[in-house]
Write a structure and sequence with these properties.
Number of strands: 0
Order of helices and strands: HHHHHHHHHH
Radius of gyration: 33 Å
Number of helices: 10
Helix content: 55-70%
Structural class: mainly alpha
Strand content: under 5%
């Protein structure tokens, strides 16, 4: 053990000296010192294992199948019920091979008549901000409508 005797190392370890300090004093690698201390029966402080969060214990396959597929709960609703993170919910759904539900299609914001009206007013020189406010959409949507007219999409 380098320059230190085993009895001296054991005494210093029991006095609370860290494994890293002991390894340095004995001119050993930390892992080698840790292994030798364990072999000599010297208790070494080990970082306690982090207990599994209570929330993830409730994310059983049966629960997720019932909540997600049968009752059609969203990730946010499952999180509110269990306290689990969205990441954990997603990971367990994937682990249990529970299929994702198809995304819900959003309603179209503008009808074909509204799009035509936006195009006509834009051609007359009405500011895009005003067009957006009148239609109840963002300027980005107005520009998309105008861009789709140039691309040949009239719907």
């Amino acid at each position: 053990m380098g320059s230190m005797r085993l009895e001296e190392i054991k005494a210093r370890a029991r006095a609370g000296e860290t494994v890293q300090d002991l390894a340095e004093a004995a001119q050993e690698r930390v892992q080698v010192m840790r292994d030798k201390l364990r072999a000599a029966g010297v208790p070494i402080y080990e970082r306690p294992q982090k207990p599994r969060a209570e929330a993830t214990r409730t994310l059983t396959e049966a629960y997720l199948r019932d909540a997600y597929l049968t009752r059609e709960r969203t990730y946010a609703e499952i999180r509110a019920e269990t306290g689990a993170s969205l990441h954990s919910i997603h990971r367990y759904l994937k682990q249990y091979k529970i299929p994702r539900r198809p995304p819900v299609a959003r309603a179209r914001k503008l009808s074909a008549a509204q799009k035509t009206e936006i195009r006509q007013k834009a051609a007359e020189g009405v500011p895009k901000t005003q067009l957006a406010a009148e239609a109840g959409v963002s300027r980005t949507i107005v520009y998309r409508v105008l861009g789709s007219a140039r691309a040949g999409d009239e719907g």
